[in-house]
Amino acid sequence: MESSLIRVGMLGCGHVGAALAVLVAERRDEVARRTGLDLSVTRIAVRNTAIDRDVPVNDDAFTTDAASVVADPEVDVVVELMGGIEPARELVATALSSGKPVVTANKELLANHGAELYALAEANGVDLLFEAAVAGAIPIMRPLRESLAGEPIRRGMGIVNGTTNFILTRMTDEGASYADALAEAQSLGYAESDPTADVEGFDAGAKAAIIATLAFGARVVAGDVYHEGISGITVDDIEFAADLKHCIKLLAVAEQTVDEDGRSQVGVRVHPTLVPLDHPLASVNGSFNAVFVEGEASGDLMLYGRGAGGRPSASAVLGDLIDAAGNLHGGHGAVIGDLEPVRIAPIDDVTSAFYLNLEVDDRPGVLAQVAAVFGEHGVSIRSMEQEGLGGEARLVFITHGAQERDLRSTLEDLRSLDAVRAVGSVLRVIGD
Amino acid sequence: MESSLIRVGMLGCGHVGAALAVLVAERRDEVARRTGLDLSVTRIAVRNTAIDRDVPVNDDAFTTDAASVVADPEVDVVVELMGGIEPARELVATALSSGKPVVTANKELLANHGAELYALAEANGVDLLFEAAVAGAIPIMRPLRESLAGEPIRRGMGIVNGTTNFILTRMTDEGASYADALAEAQSLGYAESDPTADVEGFDAGAKAAIIATLAFGARVVAGDVYHEGISGITVDDIEFAADLKHCIKLLAVAEQTVDEDGRSQVGVRVHPTLVPLDHPLASVNGSFNAVFVEGEASGDLMLYGRGAGGRPSASAVLGDLIDAAGNLHGGHGAVIGDLEPVRIAPIDDVTSAFYLNLEVDDRPGVLAQVAAVFGEHGVSIRSMEQEGLGGEARLVFITHGAQERDLRSTLEDLRSLDAVRAVGSVLRVIGD
User: Fold this and answer.
1) Quick one: average pLDDT of A34-54?
2) Cβ separation of B306 and A300 shorter than 8 Å?
3) A337: which DSSP letter?
4) Nearest CA of chain B to the CA of A312: how many Å?
5) In terms of domains, do A76 and A184 share one?
6) Closest CA to A403 of A346, A345, A352, A343
């Protein structure tokens, strides 16, 4: 097969970028033999050209002028790995407008400006591919993108943040406290010194927005995502959940539902969740990621793998790069097309089962009072466990599916009962 | 977007075929809106046109003359769902030779004649797609096919036969005997009245050959696959495995290794295997399938979902159909290309850990004798459990990695010891 040279311009050369430059060089011959595409990284924009990056690329390829890489007529495909919104947005938009395909791993960019960029890619007949933006090496974006046409999706649920999954796994396996598990994650480089974006669910929220956009062809942005983090989870919660044959995972959930008036809406949220131990998501431990998809015809699917790391993410970028390069001369990949404006389900409308943990006086009649409050708000109890604590008792409930608003008013009334000393964690539960 | 009509000719209209005809009709408008492809099933070859099939296709589309469907100038894409080798092979070859893309779910055909058909597709510049041939709805063929270029794979391990996984899950969860679990699978329609192809690993073996072919770009056929089935697995084995924190799964394994002389070789085999309970494959239960892939750069990936069933398999066929149709006018998908002849690793060369279960006399010195035999053959013991049975004892071993040939000679010598009354199951174990 005759090879055609594909000149790759990279924006950014951090962890993933450096791994990509190495991977492209390592695989060059094999990729050319298999696909006829001779990939070569010819330009790299970085903030500081003085740093020695130890990548197999000529020194004169480096520049601090990112716009010049995009504009270079000798760059065929642009790979954006700089992160953040500006100037990445403008550079990507310029590349697409000038007919250059773009591969990116930038979740913030897509979660905030995806719709305009997908439209720009389509208008210019070029690819905008981003397999590495959600769940690193896991091939999830492509099946979702292609699903728009062939396979309506009811719901996607993902463990898409490795830091929080590492922390929750440590708390579960070692009985470590949240603070200790976080400190360990920080010392291993899995968590940043300010861990807010991970532990409060912002990172997972951006990914949830991208998943919802692709799964439902709907305009969903990061700001639409409801989120709760894991900083309030205690070892007690994890132990109670284990007694009930569940583990606790931070899930990003995107689902298509209808509101009371029958209007279609999309729910997108991130929160700690009780997952039954026999559910495939329960086996996703440590820094691994997974996305569980409920397709209308395909049934349940789960895609599992490394959600981060230079080489795993670079492998996903390389896959996109081969696709985009292959489409340079004729055709391009599955089109995301026009995204429809969509009603975002208010969190009050969402129905799920709940786990509640109450400290109450240990005397006759208390359970009846508590149960009556659930009943008044139409919240039905699936299971209850009681344990004495000497003078007080702990009641652990799992409810049947209930609306958030009903659960919230149940909680208000429970808190006003004299016999209820404290309402502990309230967590959502996934089921069958 | 302007739609172009794509006329689909189907060969066969059984379970998957009927579901496909329904799915194509259901999704027609949405597929056209998203992709510009207006799919229509216009011809269907069946064995008997008198059967009412309740599919949304005109009666005059049906014919018993399969060759006429392939030859029809008004058929743009051929979908082969008849199964078996002939006449499917000839029909698929004719379609490809005349420049028509083919989508098939026929694992026997690909496991025996894949190389010639992939070459024919490439020579004619058309697609031959077969996502549904292995693990039904799970998107595994595409990542493997594309991996040929970008991502060298070290090993693939799959639970790719739902019948045997259902039986093993029943034995594990309910303590059912093999015979009872098989009978239940038969009564539910999961197992055929002659279950040999499933329980002895032939079905999984054909899929293993296809996985090995795509993962390694190597010519591997069904006859190259070593296989052992599950009919010898007892409830005792499952319980001993559980004590050792393992479950038992029938795995299809394809791996790239080197022989003693440093020559590259491919090992392909199907056998019952002890899987650690915290391995993601351990959570794949009932009739679900999964393929676990160890990629060189991507790291571990697992793809999980429905391995069979009309609608799940039809959803995979529809995905391929959209791809093939989209490529009709310019370009085609990732090329499998020329498959290299490859050395198939003899089973004696394969290294793995083993589980062994021995009944021995319960008297001093027996364990020392048994341990000496392992030592003579260089097989190292990772763990041992002993339980008294009154007069006799049971020894359950897990070894470190050992070559099959050494394990085999160990077993011969163990059988010749007076103190060894019986050698029970010998099973392979996967580890980290």
Assistant:
1) 91
2) yes
3) -
4) 4
5) no
6) A352
C-alpha A310/C-alpha A15 separation (Å) is 5
Query: How far lies A296's CA from each of A61, A151, A153, B34, B227, in Å?
Result: 48, 7, 6, 17, 35
How far apart, in whole angstroms, are the C-alpha atoms of residue B394 and residue A86? 68
Q: Dmax over Cα atoms in chain A, in whole Å?
A: 84
Does residue A336 fall inside a structural domain? no
Catalytic residue among B100, B207, B245, B249: B207
Residue A150 near residue B31, CB atoms below 8 Å: yes
Regarding whether B153 and B91 lie in a shared domain, the answer is no
> Is B58 a domain residue?
yes
Q: Is residue B345 part of a domain?
A: no
* B contact test, residue of A26, A154, A296, A304 with most B CBs within 10 A: A304
Domain identity same for B283 and B363: no
Q: How far apart are CA A100 and CA A72, in angstroms?
A: 11
User: Using one digit for the tens of pLDDT, what is the confidence trace for A165-215?
Assistant: 999 999 999 999 999 999 999 999 889 999 999 999 999 999 999 999 999
Structure tokens at A204: 């997972």
**B186 and B310 Cβ atoms separated by less than 8 Å:** no
Contacts 24+ apart (CB under 8 A), A402-405: A402/A351, A402/A352, A402/A353, A402/A354, A402/A377, A402/A378, A403/A348, A403/A349, A403/A350, A403/A351, A404/A347, A404/A348, A404/A349, A404/A350, A404/A351, A404/A352, A405/A348, A405/A349
- pLDDT by residue (tens digit) across A48-103? 998 888 899 999 999 999 999 999 999 999 999 999 999 999 999 999 999 999 99
Q: What are phi and psi of B354, to 5 degrees?
A: -125, 150
Contacts of B324 in chain A (CB under 8 A): none
Distance from CA of A338 to the nearest CA of B (A): 9
CATH number, domain of A419, equals 3.30.70.260
Angle between helices A15-35 and B141-150 (to 10 degrees): 100
Q: Are residues A234 and A359 in the same domain?
A: no
Q: For residues B213 and B220, is the Cβ–Cβ distance under 8 A?
A: yes
Q: Are residues A294 and A169 located together in one domain of the fold?
A: yes
Q: What SS3 class is residue A421?
A: strand
pLDDT exceeds 70 at position B218: yes
Assess contact for B20 and B104: CB atoms under 8 A.
no
Nearest Cβ partner for A150 among B278, B322, B335: B322
Q: Is the same domain home to A211 and A103?
A: no
Cα angle, residue A183 at apex, residues A180 and A188 outer, rounded to 5°: 125
**At residue A240, what is the residue type?**
F
Residue B78 to residue B20: CA distance in whole angstroms: 13
Instruction: Determine whether A245 is an active site residue.
Output: no
Please give the residue range of the domain that contains residue A378. 350-429
Under 8 Å between Cβ of B216 and B339: no
Question: Domain boundary at A268, A294, A326, which?
Answer: A326
Asked if residue A204 is part of any domain, the answer here is yes
Q: What is the token pair recorded at B232?
A: 């010898």
Domain count of the fold of chain A: 3
Q: Assign residue A317 the CATH number of its domain.
A: 3.40.50.720
pLDDT digits (tens, 9 = 90+) for A128-170: 999 999 998 998 888 787 765 677 899 999 999 999 999 999 9
**Residues from chain B contacting residue A316 (CB–CB below 8 Å):** 298
Contact across the interface for A330 and B327, Cβ inside 8 Å: no
Residue A7 tokens, joined = 């000149």
Are residue A216 and residue A357 in the same domain, yes or no?
Answer: no
Helices (DSSP H) in B98-234: which residue ranges?
Answer: 107-123, 141-150, 162-174, 178-187, 196-199, 202-216
pTM, full prediction: 0.91
- Give φ, ψ of A117 to 5 degrees: -75, -40
Residues 150-169 of A with CB under 8 A from B: 150-152
Residues A100 and A148 in one domain: no
- Can you tell me the distance from the alpha carbon of A108 to that of A156, in angstroms, rounded to the nearest whole number? 19
Residue A391 one-letter amino acid: G
